[in-house]
Amino acid sequence: MIVAEVEVHQVIGTYDCSEESQCAYESQDSIDVNGFQVLPSQVKIVSCIFERHPDIAVGFRSKNQLLRKTSMNFLLNLIKTLCQSLQDLSTEDLEDTDIALTYLKDVGFEVDWLEWILDDVKEKKDKEQSSLVRLREMNDSLLKLKQKCSKLDALAKKDEAELSATRTPLSFYDVV
Q1: DSSP state letters, the chain
Q2: 84 and 49 in contact (C-beta within 8 Å)?
Q3: Does some domain include residue 38?
Q4: Is the residue at 53 inside a domain?
Q5: Per the domain annotation, does 125 fall within a domain?
Q6: Which residue segment(s) compose the domain that 54 sits in?
Q7: Is residue 157 in some structural domain?
Q8: Looking at residue 9, what is its pLDDT?
Q9: What is the per-residue pLDDT across 4-50, written as a single tens digit (0 to 9) for each?
Q10: pLDDT confidence of residue 168
Q11: What does the pLDDT look like over 154-166, one tens digit per residue?
Q12: Backbone angles phi, psi at 107, to 5 degrees
């Protein structure tokens, strides 16, 4: 038995649990989409997911609506993360996304399609990073070449001035 003393600083929300039944999580602002309670703003997105991937939740067995809603939000946030630009995603973000995907698979979601997308994003991120390294190296080389060109340009102008002075014909007074 573990005994803990908890001090409440602020109550954010409440829900009722009867001793006879499991906690039923039903919110007035939630809408049921294929057995998952989602916010009205999420209905279109979740419906699209089920339309494109009808078997996504076949293996998801939990009846607890709070867990169902939390897992769906987890999936939606994972998809949202993958939709970010590569510049906004760090390698650590992609590692966390990989862990999140493993969690979703463990709870019963069929997300092979999402795994392929994650692999594609990881590959693009690797290409982006190697391209950035090459680009920095090229810019460094280009800067050195520009400096060399600037020095050569200055030497050429000096030599042109000397050549011009050498070619200047002698005047009558220079000869006499």
Answers
A1: --------S---------SSSPPP---TT-EEETTEEE-GGGHHHHHHHHHH-TTTTTT-----HHHHHHHHHHHHHHHHHHTS-GGG--HHHHHHHHHHHHHHHHTT---HHHHHHHHHHHHHHHHHHHHHHHHHHHHHHHHHHHHHHHHHHHHHHHHHHHHHHHHPPPPHHHH-
A2: no
A3: yes
A4: yes
A5: no
A6: 31-114
A7: no
A8: 58
A9: 666 665 555 555 444 333 344 445 588 899 989 999 999 999 999 99
A10: 85
A11: 999 999 988 888 8
A12: -85, -5
| Number of folded domains that form the chain | 1
Question: How far is residue 156's CA from residue 158's CA, in Å, rounded to a whole number?
Answer: 5
Q: Are 134 and 148 in contact (CB under 8 A)?
A: no
pLDDT beyond 80 at 112: yes
48: which 2 tokens? 């699209």
Return the pLDDT at 42. Answer: 92
Strands 31-33 and 36-38: antiparallel
